[in-house]
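Um, can you check?
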Amino acid sequence: MHDGNESALIVQDEATPRKRRKGIYILPNLFTLAALFGGFYAVVMAMNNRFDLASVGVFCAMVLDSLDGRVARMTNTQSAFGEQMDSLSDMVSFGAAPALIAYEWTLREAGRWGWIAAFVYCACAALRLARFNVNTGVVDKRWFQGLPSPAAAALVTGFIWLMTELEVARADVTWFMFALALYAGLTMVTNVPFYSFKDVQMKKSVPFVVIVLIALGIAIVNIHPPIVMFGLFVVYGFSGYAVYAWRKAKGHQTSVISTSTDEPDERGLHK
């Protein structure tokens, strides 16, 4: 009698599918964690007055941040967890870290105006990231709505890196740093379009000359990385306003909202 009941229970257990445990993908999140470490490392170096290493930490975080999404798409390991993790990492590496580094470097010399500028930058980075998450479905993928936070961080920390390499006295550029922090912060929350480079197809074949140009670009960067990198991001940091003015002059649409004019669906974003 008992054997029959036990057999029935075994058959029932085998027929019942086991609920699969939810997990996270390791590979893309490793890149995200490494980018987060870059921002944390930058803050620690700034606390130890190693502002050159602090700036390098932010730039390393930028490189790693640009890879995690691509790795996730290439390996088909995208997830909602990864998206939220990426945003939190960006807030540390490109929001809090540059603001704290700039304040420790010279903004403290400006008194209350210094920490106000640092806070404005940090707050604008948070607002920019939140808007990016909400507007993902309605913004033209070829453009960013406002200056992306990694580029804003590159403006702030790139200037610090350059001035440190040139051994310029911090007190001589306090108010320039103040203006740059405000510019970078406020430009993040504008509607000015900045090219995203997302329509560049890495899987397509390219002429041989493109590889030669890439090698030439790497060589130019190595001539003096602080000058070249800061110069590139200064050009990019002002390019959005040039595009906006050109579109305005031609009578073209200046908004990058392309697929809808309605408020994006925010369900699930505020849990």
Summary: Confidence is low (pLDDT under 50) at residues 259-271. The first strand starts at residue 143 and ends at 145. Residues 30-250 form a domain with the Four Helix Bundle (Hemerythrin (Met), subunit A) fold (CATH 1.20.120.1760).
